[in-house]
From TrEMBL:
Signal listed as a keyword: yes
GO biological process: glycerophospholipid biosynthetic process
Family: Belongs to the HAD-like hydrolase superfamily.
Keywords of the record: Signal
A cellular component term, taken from the record's GO annotations: mitochondrion
Organism name: Seriola lalandi dorsalis
Pfam annotation, one family: Hydrolase_6
PANTHER family recorded: CDP-DIACYLGLYCEROL--GLYCEROL-3-PHOSPHATE 3-PHOSPHATIDYLTRANSFERASE-RELATED, HALOACID DEHALOGENASE-LIKE HYDROLASE DOMAIN-CONTAINING 5
Taxonomic superkingdom: Eukaryota
Protein name per Swiss-Prot or TrEMBL: Haloacid dehalogenase-like hydrolase domain-containing 5
Keyword flag Thylakoid: no
Length: 451
């Protein structure tokens, strides 16, 4: 209960800060002009959530359709027509850096407020911000952690330097000559996994050391240290698409290795305090908050009614959007049931949807059920659109025609261990060739002119 209360406080603080920022922005003509008011009255009130890798770019190379797509999404002055947020499971950089990169590739202005990285929701986990946390990943992980609100940060390199005898897989990195003394560090209170590291063997070894010593890696291992200190992981993607013809290993693969090693050594399952990034519901809650902020900058007074999530990965983008849509339907149904009860009405016919929501695992919700805002703020639904320019390819994969089938040799589950395999959640609302077709489809669905 204490964890849930902390998450709720963090979410409300984040929500109020975003809304306050949006109100402040509305008073600034230079920023409010960054958007072209397609429907100021909110008649066609919808927002777009774009994945990046495999949808807009492959590695460092823009997908050709992406530039044309964004030419259509902005007016002649380069201003956006609808609220747009980029939702990526990448997390090895700052939002500002990713925004600048996208601006260069797409040849339109992208602001940091439009970018959501896999670790962005960690801002709401305020109960960990004053703890000593070990961070794993690559890029400016220490800067990223401080930017998210963490005050006391230890990197893998700092841990390795303090305890020079821990990392010995690479013979060239072993201490030479006399054994150096350990410097000692304050005990680690929690572990945060931002993304795949460069030296997997080093990170795997040192993280297991920390977990088996209750945060004191100079101590002796003890399998009695269970449950271990909290672990928060961002980005569960098993695979992702770069320039190569075939998908590349993602952070989800690193998590599989860590889980397997921990269980092999201890006999216990590695436990996560939180799994963040697509396809968790809390990630889409956060993305919707950013969409709402963009809508307020547009001057829209009506809430955003519909979201469209465009992605290339059935197990991350499509599963996540559909899971969030199920969450939205359950939330609205719950609200209707409460209203019916207070008014003496009968049973809500959407009760089965609520049952679906109750079946979601805590990993899938990521705390969203207890920390999100009032139901009246929620969109009516979220549609998923699958493109064929990334992980998914019509030539190599077939979507399930029978969503009642379970995992077989022909249908391998690429989702995280703590997420259930629900074939229906991997079925997109629409399948199109590329992001340009996806945006054209959305505007057609909404009955809005795109050009």
């Amino acid at each position: 209960m204490q964890r849930l209360r902390s998450l709720k406080r963090g979410w409300q603080l984040l929500k109020s800060s975003c809304e306050g920022a949006a109100k402040h922005v509305n008073t600034s003509p230079s920023i409010s002009r960054s958007y072209s008011h397609l429907h100021p009255q909110g008649h066609n009130s919808f927002g777009l959530l774009f994945d990046i890798d495999g949808v807009l770019v492959r590695g460092r190379t823009p997908i050709p359709a992406a530039k044309q797509c964004f030419r259509n999404l902005v007016d002649r002055n380069g201003k956006y027509k609808v609220p747009v947020v980029f939702v990526t499971n990448a997390g090895n950089c700052m939002r500002q850096t990713k925004a600048e990169h996208l601006s260069h590739l797409l040849e339109v202005e992208v602001s940091p407020d439009q970018v959501m990285l896999s670790h962005s929701p960690l801002r709401m986990f305020t109960q960990f911000h004053n703890m000593c946390v070990l961070v794993s990943g690559q890029g400016p992980v220490e800067e990223v952690a401080h930017n998210l609100g963490f005050q006391d940060v230890v990197t893998i390199d700092m841990l390795r330097e303090a305890y020079p005898l821990l990392d010995v897989v690479d013979h060239n990195r072993r201490p030479k000559g006399s054994i150096p003394p350990t410097k000692g560090l304050r005990p680690i209170d929690a572990v945060i996994l931002f993304g795949e590291p460069i030296r997997w063997e080093t990170n795997l070894q040192l993280i297991v050391d920390v977990l088996l010593t209750n945060g004191n890696p100079d101590n002796t291992w003890s399998s009695m240290q269970y449950p271990h200190i909290p672990v928060l992981a961002c980005n569960m993607d098993l695979l992702w698409m770069a320039e190569a013809k075939n998908p590349r290993f993602g952070h989800g693969m690193f998590l599989v290795c860590l889980e397997s090693l921990y269980k092999k050594v201890t006999g216990h399952e590695l436990k996560y305090e939180a799994l963040i990034g697509k396809p968790s519901v809390v990630t889409y809650n956060y993305a919707e908050l950013l969409i709402r902020q963009q809508a307020e900058r547009l001057g829209w007074t009506s809430p955003v009614k519909r979201l469209y999530a465009i992605g290339d990965n059935p197990m991350a983008d499509i599963y996540g959007a559909n899971l969030y849509n199920r969450y939205l339907q359950a939330s609205w149904s719950t609200k209707a049931q409460k209203q019916a009860k207070s008014g003496g009405g009968g049973v809500d016919p959407l009760a089965d949807t609520v049952d679906d929501a109750l079946k979601m695992t805590s990993a899938e919700l990521g705390g969203a059920s207890s920390v999100y805002g009032a139901e009246e703020d929620l969109p009516e639904g979220c549609s998923s659109i699958l493109v064929c320019t990334g992980v998914y390819s019509r030539d190599q994969q077939e979507l399930l025609s029978d969503t009642t089938q379970t995992v077989t040799e022909q249908q391998i589950f690429h989702g995280h261990r703590d997420f259930r395999f629900d074939p229906s959640l991997t079925q997109p609302s629409f399948v199109v060739q590329d992001v340009k077709e996806a945006v054209e489809l959305v505007f057609q669905q909404e009955g809005c002119p795109l050009e």
